[in-house]
Amino acid sequence: MIIGHGIDLQELTAIQEALQKHPRFVDKVLTSREKEHFDKLKGKRQLEYLAGRWSAKEAFAKALGTGIGKLRFQDMEVLNDAKGVPRLSQSQVAAKVWLSISHSGNFVQASVILEEADESK
Q1: Residue list for the binding site for Mg(2+)
Q2: Pairing label, strands 86-89, 95-104
Q3: pTM across the whole model
Q4: Is the pLDDT of residue 121 over 70?
Q5: Which residues participate in Mg(2+) binding (predicted)?
Q6: Tens digit of pLDDT for each residue in 23-58?
Q7: Which residues are annotated as part of the binding site?
Q8: Under CATH, domain 2-116 is a member of which superfamily?
Q9: Which of 35, 37, 96, 103 is the catalytic position?
Q10: Active-site residue, selected from the candidate residues 22, 44, 62, 121
Q11: Residue ranges covered by each domain of the chain
Q12: How far is 75 from 90, CA to CA, in rounded Å?
């Protein structure tokens, strides 16, 4: 059974502006392991990666019903599995987490669905 759903849509230009205004923006949003991957990217791909992680974490916080504030960006981590699928790891909820991140033009969107881990409930 679905227990939460969150969606976030973000403009790349807003993330780029935040990056220019706040030198520690990347450190606020990305965990150290996410930052390792970020540092290997260049140009627009680096911006898309950062915006995708921002959007995924916002969508997760919305699915939980807390929003960002009670939950910090550092409390969540989005890494790709061996097939390149983004996976969100966290410890705040005992649920299956379904994550999708999409990029189109100047936008990135993330959707998170939380599903009961134990279907017998």
Answers
A1: 8, 58
A2: unpaired
A3: 0.90
A4: no
A5: 8, 58
A6: 899 999 999 999 999 999 998 999 999 999 999 999
A7: 8, 58
A8: 4'-phosphopantetheinyl transferase domain (3.90.470.20)
A9: 103
A10: 62
A11: 2-116
A12: 7
